[in-house]
């Protein structure tokens, strides 16, 4: 459930320092501590609780940067903080300055930094359907803090090399749920590293303990894992990945025994005389009331995707990808993929350059590349240049078409279109049309572009899933997404007066 992005956090120097000091730590028995939450002796590599807190403090800004910043929503933040604070009272470690943050990203994730920094994303809040599910997520993250998994893992890293995973990233990142690829490779590395399966299970076990003590129904831990799984399947379809690829790294794969443990916890609760009826509350209505009106999907400030169109109201431009391309909006670039293997990457140059766009393309961006058919052109009144080159990627020989368009400030919008060499002819015209579709937006039309909102409504007899799902931004996957959002299994019908999450444009 949580992909603690440690590798984002550690600088190369810190990692090297860690590895160097590791040599000295091997075989040292003096740094085992009995953890009050897990009850285990854990190797935390001399890291004290104060060190945990300092580490959290230092890395908090990096998490904000990687995940779109703070979602500024006073009521929801207060709500999450209240529930988190209540749960924290049931943990074994009160001395952490627990702090709860909602991250402004549609990615579905939750994470924790050592020292009590707990994060849930806007995407996760949209997916959850009850207060108990949110409490389950927060409890799980609290458990990573209290069981000091971060420090323990750091201890392990000091002993063992961590480089082995790096080679596997490219392919495996594809199977990750919730669009983690948007964050680029470093976060993907962290995501795969995550915590060990043992840590995840321990966090679930402790999480079930905390949420049960606070009066929530422990079954919510399982129901939310189920939602996460359904979500990761739809996401995989959206990204054109085979379902098998997803299952390998999905949330159920890392939490296989949670279901079993929830059953045990319920069994214990029933056995202690609290009785089955006192298993705990779900708080579904209350939760839906809280998330009613929250932002859904991309924040226009970060650019948004509508079908095969990318719109950036902040920077005031838009373009269209070729038909049937699936676009993904990342922190630094927009990527697009076609099921046939064609792909595109859009980004902006960091450097300001004088001189014609053709010079930038030839001597700057594509320096040291054998360019063909260099051509100057004008797009929406802006000067541009395009050329192509042959290259090689994981799939084999490819043709790459590069297009640079000069911004008013001397930087460049850059398009890279990639097709398998054998199909290069077929893609030439669609790529050109896509590049030529680039246009600037005036202030007024940019201002009209608003974020989508999640609204909670009551189903009317005439409502259909297709009808309610059509405002979602996921094209032919709208119905599937709507089902995930509302815990409806494939084929399951709406029931009268059911409370539903819908998306308003
Ligand atoms: Zn976790």
Structure description:
- By secondary structure, the chain is α+β, with helices and mostly antiparallel strands.
- It has three domains: about 5-295, no CATH class; about 300-445, Mog1/PsbP, alpha/beta/alpha sandwich (Protein Transport Mog1p, Chain A); about 450-505, Roll (Membrane-bound Lytic Murein Transglycosylase D, Chain A).
- The protein contains 20 helices and 19 strands.
- The strands form five sheets. A seven-stranded antiparallel beta sheet has the order 10-11-12-16-15-14-13, with helices on both faces. The protein has a four-stranded antiparallel beta sheet with strand order 7-8-9-17.
- Helix 2 crosses helix 7 and helix 11 runs antiparallel to helix 20 (about 480-485).
- Mean pLDDT is about 80; it is low at about 1-30, about 155-195 and about 245-250.
- The protein binds zinc ion (ZN).
- Zinc ion (ZN) binds near residues 1, 140, 144, 195 and 200.
Helical residues, percent: 40-55%
Q: Which molecules are bound besides the chains?
A: zinc ion
Class from secondary-structure proportions:
alpha+beta
Number of domains: 3
Computed Rg: 25 Å
Mean pLDDT, all residues: 79
Count the E strands: 19
Biggest beta sheet attributes = 7 strands, antiparallel
Q: Residue ranges: pLDDT <50 for 5 or more in a row?
A: 1-31, 156-193, 247-252
| Oligomeric composition of the shown chains | single chain
């Amino acid at each position: 459930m949580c992909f603690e992005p440690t590798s984002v956090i550690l600088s190369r120097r810190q990692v090297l320092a860690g590895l160097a000091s590791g040599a000295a730590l091997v075989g040292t028995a003096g740094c085992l501590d009995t953890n009050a939450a897990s009850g285990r002796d854990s190797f935390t590599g001399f890291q004290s609780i104060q060190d945990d807190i300092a580490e959290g403090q230092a890395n908090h800004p990096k998490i904000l940067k990687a995940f779109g910043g703070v979602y500024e929503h006073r009521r929801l933040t207060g709500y999450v903080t209240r529930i988190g604070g209540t749960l924290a009272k049931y943990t074994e470690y009160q001395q952490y300055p627990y702090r709860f943050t909602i991250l402004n990203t549609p990615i579905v994730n939750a994470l924790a930094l050592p020292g009590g920094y707990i994060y849930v994303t806007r995407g996760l809040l949209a997916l959850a359907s009850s207060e108990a599910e949110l409490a389950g997520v927060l409890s799980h993250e609290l458990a990573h803090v209290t069981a000091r998994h971060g420090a323990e893992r750091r201890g392990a890293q000091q002993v063992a090399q961590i480089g082995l995973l790096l080679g596997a990233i490219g392919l495996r990142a594809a199977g990750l749920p919730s669009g983690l690829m948007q964050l680029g490779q470093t976060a993907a590395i962290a995501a795969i590293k995550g915590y060990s399966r043992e840590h995840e299970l321990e966090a679930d076990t402790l999480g079930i303990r905390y949420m049960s003590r606070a009066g929530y129904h422990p079954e919510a831990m399982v129901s939310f894992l189920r939602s996460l799984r359904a979500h990761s399947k739809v996401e995989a379809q959206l990204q054109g990945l085979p379902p098998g690829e997803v299952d390998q790294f999905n949330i159920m794969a890392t939490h296989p025994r949670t279901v079993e443990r929830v059953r045990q916890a319920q069994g214990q609760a029933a056995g202690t005389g609290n009785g089955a009826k006192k298993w705990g509350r779900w708080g579904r209505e209350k939760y839906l009331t809280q998330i009613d009106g929250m932002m859904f999907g991309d924040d226009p400030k970060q650019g948004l995707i509508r079908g095969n169109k990318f719109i950036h109201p902040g920077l005031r431009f838009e373009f269209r990808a070729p038909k049937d391309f699936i676009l993904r909006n990342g922190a630094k670039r927009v990527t697009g993929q076609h099921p046939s293997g064609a792909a595109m990457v859009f980004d902006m140059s960091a450097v300001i350059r004088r001189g014609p766009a053709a010079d930038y393309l030839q001597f700057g961006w594509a320096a040291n590349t054998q360019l063909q058919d260099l051509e100057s052109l004008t797009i929406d009144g802006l000067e541009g240049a395009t050329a192509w080159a042959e290259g090689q990627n994981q799939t084999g020989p490819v043709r790459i078409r590069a297009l640079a368009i000069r911004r008013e400030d001397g930087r460049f919008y850059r398009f890279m279109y990639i097709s398998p060499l054998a199909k290069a002819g077929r893609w030439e015209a669609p790529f050109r049309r896509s590049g030529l579709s680039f246009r600037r937006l005036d202030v007024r039309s940019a201002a009209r572009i608003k974020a989508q909102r999640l609204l909670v409504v009551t189903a009317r007899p005439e409502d259909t899933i297709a009808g309610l799902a059509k405002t979602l931004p996921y094209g032919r996957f709208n119905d599937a997404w709507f089902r995930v959002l509302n815990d409806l299994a494939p084929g399951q019908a709406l029931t009268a007066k059911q409370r539903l999450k819908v998306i308003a444009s």
